Amino acid sequence: MVRDYDNWIDGCWIETPRRLDRFSPADGRLLSRFADSDCEVLDLGVKAARAAFDHRDRWPYLPGSQRAQHLTRLADLIVAHSEKLSEIESEEAGKPIRFARAEVAWAAELIRYAAALAWQIPGDAVSNIGEAALGLVTREPRGVVGIIVPWNFPLVTLFQKLAFALAAGCTTVIKPSELTSGTALEVAILAKQAGFPDGVINVVTGTGVNVGDAMTSHPGIDMISFTGSTAVGKHVARRCADSIKRVGLELGGKAANIVFPDADLDAAVDGVLLGYILNQGQECVQGTRLLVHADIAKQFVEQLVDRSKRIRLGLPMDESADMGPLIHDSHMNGVLNHIRRASTEGARLAIGGYQVADPPFDRGCFVTPTVFDHVTTDMALFRDEVFGPVLAVTTFSADDEAVTLANYTGYGLGNGVWTKDIDRAVFCSRRLKSGTVYVNTYLETSVQMPFGGFKESGMGRENGMDGLLEFTETKSTFIKLGNRLPALPHTVAA
Ligand code: NAD
């Protein structure tokens, strides 16, 4: 059955005649139809969010404990509807169902954590600014937040923003990816059931050009919180600069796993494998480069290739699948172009490198796990974000060299270090220019740990207390105690 959605604005469906069709990346079936909105529809969403924010007795003025209650109820409802949400996520994003279930569970955890933060938004009293004065430093919600998210983890990228924005007291207009808008709309309905006031959560679907651009210039939006590619992120930042709109950016990556000879090599193979194939390699913090010490490189790559051969491709609802299809045809063709270019530039193909042509995968965008070794820093594969299951292997001989190679990219989202030597682990971790470093593990995640990028991987942090504070402005209030002496005494009548 094809799912057909309008926009969700001010607590109800707003009919929008034009539609965007989402076809299955696994078999080409029509899955969902989303409203193809324009700036007029967006304006309705912004007006609803503005009213919900500006009206004194509404969302930002509720005690944090009450916002927390709403959030907790939403988390409960998401868990109760987990199977439906997982199926939509799995079909639209093409990810195997067990990973979609994990994503739904993770979204609920993000919401519960943000609910706890709503109780304890920090502030300060400053008592050393004079005997007859008191300073208050408060954190106030930024206002209406425009949330723009991508297709690779539609629910997690959404809730890393939405849950914290709501906890802080902001109201929201969400633009999900035009490829995977289903779960954001389903969640908006659940939020109404959870008791959120109308207008606090609005979802306006459509393209980046029609809706996204209109959001970044809309005077009713106080902040844009964006997750997506670095190219679009730069464009968003430039447009926000025109009105000094606050902006948070979670962008692309080109992470490296550095493997030293003293590491637990079985664990390292496992981590590197997960790091490059999870979500079909469509992961911002994907471990897309392997930097392996020359002494162990041959043996390590052989083991990795052997394990890569056992990765199971599957249709989205296949419970045993490790990997599904890439998100759509043109993205797959981009990944295949990267593969062709790497061969032309002299990298050695160790495994994979092709689109699967056999049934039942012949109607979808399935690309096999692909490993290139002999990759050098001048090759595009070393620098560019591929966003597919493609690993670039480069060798090193000294610790400094490994760190220099890992940092030899414009991105700075994550890196991994595999070693049993604590000195070496800390040496590398301190020098790696990335927002996250994993030591003897990869793709760990925790709601308490801030996530975000150095360099062209972004600005700002999500998760942890930092994730909440992103959605607040700091206000200083000076309070005079007792009688105030005039500052300009000669102006006072005698
Ligand atoms: P994208 O940049 O093409 O699109 C992201 C979102 O921006 C979509 O909703 C899209 O419709 C919208 N958009 C497009 N043009 C726009 C415009 N002119 N103005 C405003 N919005 C516009 O990215 P994508 O292909 O959907 O996602 C993949 C990218 O996202 C990768 O680069 C990946 O690394 C990155 N990503 C980063 C993180 C992170 O946390 N750092 C997480 C997930 C994905």
Describe this structure as you would to a colleague.
The chain has about 500 residues and is an alpha/beta fold. About 40% of the residues lie in helices and about 20% in strands. It has helices spanning about 40-55, 65-80, 80-95, 95-120, 155-170, 180-195, 210-215, 230-240, 265-275, 295-310, 330-345, 380-385, 400-405, 420-430, 465-470, and strands at about 5, 5-10, 10-15, 20-25, 30-35, 125, 135-140, 145-150, 170-175, 200-205, 225, 245-250, 255-260, 290-295, 350, 370-375, 390-395, 415-420, 435-440, 460, 470-480. The chain has a 7-stranded mixed β-sheet, with helices on both faces. It is globular, with a radius of gyration of 25 Å. The N and C termini lie far apart (about 85 Å). Nicotinamide-adenine-dinucleotide binds near residues 232 and 235.
Structure keywords:
7-stranded mixed beta sheet; binds nicotinamide-adenine-dinucleotide; 6-stranded mixed beta sheet; globular; alpha/beta
Task: Please give the radius of gyration in angstroms.
Answer: 25 Å
Integer average pLDDT: 97
Name the strands of the widest sheet in spatial order.
15-16-17-14-13-18-19
Bound molecules: nicotinamide-adenine-dinucleotide
Number of strands: 21
The separation of the N and C termini measures 85 Å
